[in-house]
Amino acid sequence: VGPKPLQGKRVLVTAGGTIERIDPVRYITNDSSGKMGFAIAEAARNRGAEVTLICGRTDAAAPNGMRIVRVDSALQMYDAVMSNLPNTDVIVKAAAVADYRPLHQEEHKMKKTSEALTLELTRNPDILQAVGDWNADQLDADKLFVIGFAAETMDVEKHALDKLNRKKCDLIVANNVAAAGAGFGTETNIVSVYASEGLVEHIPQMTKKAVAERLWDIAQARMNRLNDQ
Ligand code: PMT
């Protein structure tokens, strides 16, 4: 048997949802279980990659055989991702990052005072955008292969291609999270993979583990093509 297909590759995967604290006992989060990101990280490990998994809040048990960095907020995930970029060859951003966080984080548990409460939110950095911008400034030989996700509920292809171009990804995995058997928390997923030239492959409903294997087949083929150029 020859070397495994991702032998020698340093793969960074983000998984799970971020937690945006309101006060010491309350936070804003989302329904990401981490299953999709974990499946991608495990498949990469099995293909011989050296894997770093950066994960937020998750329901599933964390995989073994890789370096795991636990974070809570989008700001922490941003720092963890950006500081690992120089040691990364491929990045897969399956995490569901909160776009906004509370502007003020209360030091003490908030008290009930009025009938209505307005929470002021402020924008979080877009980590994938920062990765794409960082990558654009690297020499060709040092460039990462960037795989983003796009969770959409309508006009999936249009939004996915827009995210691919804006965030400077090599591939984008579009997830119609409104479809049954796809998206947050489920055992299965349904995705369409896009590159700059358009649809690469539609992956019909299958387990997240099987989706992860197909994603790596597609990514490996494209990385090999880039290396041959
Ligand atoms: O964890 P599971 O329960 O298995 O569910 C899997 C999943 C539905 C979470 C996953 O398949 C998925 O779609 N992940 C991306 C969710 C998401 O945040 O999508 P988005 O369209 O909002 O963001 C687009 C891309 O930008 C994503 O790669 C995201 O990680 C990234 N992003 C978004 C906002 C932000 N502030 N920083 C980012 O890096």
From TrEMBL:
One MF annotation (Gene Ontology) recorded for this entry: metal ion binding
Residues of the full protein shown: 183 to 411 of 419
The protein's Enzyme Commission number: 4.1.1.36, 6.3.2.5
Catalytic activity from the UniProt record: (R)-4'-phosphopantothenate + L-cysteine + CTP = N-[(R)-4-phosphopantothenoyl]-L-cysteine + CMP + diphosphate + H(+); N-[(R)-4-phosphopantothenoyl]-L-cysteine + H(+) = (R)-4'-phosphopantetheine + CO2
Gene name linked to the record: dfp
UniProt pathway annotation: Cofactor biosynthesis; coenzyme A biosynthesis; CoA from (R)-pantothenate: step 3/5; Cofactor biosynthesis; coenzyme A biosynthesis; CoA from (R)-pantothenate: step 2/5
Family: In the C-terminal section; belongs to the PPC synthetase family. In the N-terminal section; belongs to the HFCD (homo-oligomeric flavin containing Cys decarboxylase) superfamily.
Coiled-coil ranges from the UniProt annotation: none
Residues binding CTP, per UniProt: 99, 109, 125-128, 149, 163, 167
Binding note for cofactor: Binds 1 FMN per subunit.
Recorded GO CC terms: phosphopantothenoylcysteine decarboxylase complex
Cofactor(s) of this protein: FMN; Mg(2+)
Residue ranges of domain DNA/pantothenate metabolism flavoprotein C-terminal in the record: 6-218
Function, in words: Catalyzes two steps in the biosynthesis of coenzyme A. In the first step cysteine is conjugated to 4'-phosphopantothenate to form 4-phosphopantothenoylcysteine, in the latter compound is decarboxylated to form 4'-phosphopantotheine. Catalyzes two sequential steps in the biosynthesis of coenzyme A. In the first step cysteine is conjugated to 4'-phosphopantothenate to form 4-phosphopantothenoylcysteine. In the second step the latter compound is decarboxylated to form 4'-phosphopantotheine.
Record has Magnesium as a keyword: yes
One GO process term, biological-process aspect: coenzyme A biosynthetic process
Region spans: Phosphopantothenate--cysteine ligase: 11-229
Name of the protein described by the UniProt record: Coenzyme A biosynthesis bifunctional protein CoaBC
Keywords: Decarboxylase, Flavoprotein, FMN, Ligase, Lyase, Magnesium, Metal-binding, Multifunctional enzyme
